[in-house]
Amino acid sequence: MKKSIICLVIIASSFAAFSQPYQLGGGLRFDYNLGLDVKYFVNSNAALCGILGFGNGLALTGLYEIHKTLDIKNLYFYYGGGGHVMNNGYNYFDSRYYVGPSVGINGVVGFEYILKDIPLSLALDLMPIIDTNIGFDLFLGITARYLFKK
Going by CATH, does the domain composed of 18-147 fall within 3.30.420.40? Predict the structure, then answer.
């Protein structure tokens, strides 16, 4: 157990200090569905992210994310969690469609790359969810975000 904790501390401390590359960004998220995505940095390493998803139904997701820099310039690692509400859903693990309102919790872990010459970022992440209707599901998402303030 002590070795696991020491390894986690070493990994966490290996990230460089973060200075936010932008304040506000908005764009499109592609996973099993299509979504509108907005991210707002509340301080130098934490952001709020909102996603309005369309597809098998409507979903509204809110996330709190911690951002860390990596040794590669303009590449950031992030992780966090939050929740969602939706009116219909499809579980891709058991191939079942669920009708009706539901709520759930979300996790997120991913990477974001900020393009150097244009105000655009590209993100790739995994978002596990646990939902009252569909149970467990895992989304692999790609987000393209325009950066309003850099």
Answer: no
Indicate the domain borders of the chain: 18-147
Structure tokens at 14: 């290996």
User: How far from 139 is each of 17, 34, 72, 94, CA to CA, in Å?
Assistant: 29, 12, 25, 14
Give the burial class of 78: count Cβ atoms within 10 A of its Cβ; 0-12 exposed, 13-18 middle, 19 or more buried. Answer: buried
0.70 surpassed by pTM? yes
Bridge-based pairing of strands 135-147 and 24-30 is: antiparallel
Angle at 55 between CA 103 and CA 148, to 5 degrees: 90
Chain segment 45-55, per-residue pLDDT in tens: 999 999 999 98
First to last CA, the chain: 42
In the chain the beta strands, taken as DSSP E runs, fall at 24-30, 34-41, 46-54, 58-69, 75-91, 96-114, 120-131, 135-147
